[in-house]
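Input record (Table S2, row 113):
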Amino acid sequence: MAWIRFMPEDKSAKVKPGTTLFQAGRAARVFIRSRCGGNAACLMCKVKVEDQSGLAPPNRNEILKLGSLTKQGVRLSCQARITGDVTVEVPEDPLKSAIRALLAKQQEDDDGI
Ligand code: FES
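Output record (FE2/S2 (inorganic) cluster complex):
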């Protein structure tokens, strides 16, 4: 079994080797965006993994879709298979980011009055 830690939410799950990061995210109740159902088509499930010692090397789909990004630690969570403990950075949903920015601007405007 391997421990997978998802940041920035700091949630973890213990999963069997061979599980994808996407499946581990579900086990940890971490939302990872997806539109293609894990078929390496939408590229919405990208995550960042600094230390990839707990992951199998990128498969053909990842190399085709991500190219050199895989060397910078970017992986498709629906394709990346777990081999050991790993920590994963999940990017914030763009909609959440936009809402957060709007709320911050509104707060600034309210403070300025
Ligand atoms: S879920 Fe669509 S590329 Fe991974």
